[in-house]
């Protein structure tokens, strides 16, 4: 909160080192039980990183790329600007490595704190970034580059790690916290708790976007919808009445559109998506002019 001067020294863009140092100090004094939410701005434009990360991958200076394409204006870009977008992606990779390094030091520091042994630790992100398909940064498209984000959970007293292959959603975080601390999950809460149970039921995941990718406007009705069930992912662009279907098990970068080759799967996923939205009272008013082919 820069306008409140908290902590004592604040910057609009990070850095993560100061935030995590402050959080590690807080953990020493917080009475139990406690809930601590740490918000990190990295990795985020302008991707300013210290040595040895700065310039590790990028061949162009950040200011040089900003003159060609500004990260303040997330939007479509022409193919001629792809080299500069690639340079932005290199700076982004540097920022990710910087944050990974800082998180490693933070986790090591709190690992020496006895009170964190019985704590639930969750690390996640709100979105990814796009440097491809003619779209820069995030907020409009629903491709994996934007919506596939990390989620790391360390349960209290957990000693061994496990990687879940089933996709989960950000709305699963809240019920996970409630389940771990023994608070009943309200019926109105979306999502389901993420557990180490190998018998977790597979289900679809849903993504919704309300932004116009070209005019940067918000709408009351969605411009794009997506649903993933097993290996298939359907993206429906309501604003241009188009569907895309991808097999993520064979095509994780979503390069081969199967919507014309597999119309039955498109129709099945579209019906499942509509039903899932209709089941939610808050989204029952959502409509989309898209109609799958027979």
Protein described:
- This protein is of the alpha+beta class and 294 residues long.
- 27% of the residues lie in helices and 13% in strands.
- It has six helices and eight strands; from the N terminus they run αααβββαβαββββα.
- The chain has a four-stranded antiparallel sheet with strand order 5-6-7-8, covered by helices on one side. A two-stranded antiparallel sheet has the order 1-4. Strands 2-3 form a two-stranded antiparallel sheet.
- Helix 1 (16-29) packs parallel to helix 3 (82-111) and helix 2 (62-68) packs across helix 3.
- The longest helix has 30 residues, at 82-111.
- It is flat and about 60 Å long.
- Residues 1-5 have low confidence and may be disordered.
Helix-residue proportion = 25-40%
User: In which order are the strands of the major sheet placed?
Assistant: 5-6-7-8
Question: Mind describing the biggest β-sheet?
Answer: 4 strands, antiparallel
The best one-word shape is flat
CA-atom Rg in angstroms: 21 Å
Distance between the termini: 53 Å
Main attributes of the structure:
alpha+beta, 8 strands, 294 residues
Give a short overview.
The protein has 294 residues and is an alpha+beta fold. Helix content is 27%, strand content 13%. Residues 1-5 have low confidence and may be disordered.
